[in-house]
Amino acid sequence: MGRETTPEEFAAVCLALQNMGAANINIVTGSHAIPGIVEGLTAAKKMGVHIPVLWNSSGYESANALELLRDHIDIFLPDLKTLDSKLAAAFFNAPDYPQTAARAILKMADMVNDKEKLIVRHLILPGYTDSTRDVLRWFSVNIKHRAMLSLMTQYTPIPGRVKNAPQRYLSEDEYNVVMRYLDEFEIEDGFCQELLTGDDWLPDFRRSNPFSSALSVPVSPAIFSVCL
């Protein structure tokens, strides 16, 4: 699925999204292609694209790479998955993820200098609420007044995908424990999912349009879509 596009093709898709009523251009996991994306966004602005551009990433990127995005991204939406190197090694094969992501998020905060333009996501893992507590402590100490938090409960077990990954949904007791962490660290600005279980929301990447037709409409063979 998908294909390579030129900067001009990328720009044309962005313009199509804007014309269809999209609220923003949401670039998901583009860290490995930043130079090409910058070319595409530059061309898009020349074509008249003016809606906000979101950088939606895992947080696993360098400050130098992020600097290339200056003046091209309006809102950063990074993950802060864990600050536990052993957990990062086991689940993501990236023991340096905690340090890398923490540096990247601080860089994003410096770039936007506006807490409403930096939303840090954290997915609570069943059985690992201590890891979540560490993340929330770091957020409170380092960035609480420079970013908003998006706390997610939608972990969905998929057998066989990641060795030793939790094979259950988040429990109500774990959810309540994390809610107390928010009070402990006085984190008030941001978003918090209600307890969510079930997998009906999962995209199916075997399809040309991985998302439900009720949620998105494809606008090009390159599988760009407008989410409704």
Question: How would you characterize this protein structure?
Answer:
The protein has a domain at 79-197. It has 228 residues and is α/β, with parallel strands linked by helices. The protein is 36% helix and 14% strand. It has helices spanning 7-19, 34-47, 63-67, 85-92, 97-112, 129-142, 172-184, and strands at 25-28, 53-57, 75-78, 119-123, 148-152, 190-192, 216-218, 225-227. The model has no long low-confidence stretch (mean pLDDT 90). A three-stranded parallel β-sheet has the order 1-2-3. A three-stranded parallel β-sheet has the order 4-5-6, with helices on one face. Strands 7-8 form a two-stranded antiparallel sheet.
Rg: 18 Å
Percentage of β-strand residues? 5-15%
Q: Which residues form runs of ≥5 with pLDDT under 50?
A: none
Distance between the termini: 22 Å
Average pLDDT reading:
90
Query: Could you give the order of the helices and strands?
Result: HEHEHEHHEHEHEEE
Strand order of the largest sheet: 1-2-3
How many beta-strand runs? Answer: 8
How does the overall form come out from the CA principal axes? Answer: globular
- Structural class per helix/strand content? alpha/beta
Helix amount: 25-40%
Number of helices: 7
Question: Main β-sheet: number of strands, strand sense, barrel status?
Answer: 3 strands, parallel
List keywords for this structure.
single chain; 228 residues; alpha/beta; 3-stranded parallel sheet; 7 helices; 36% helix; globular
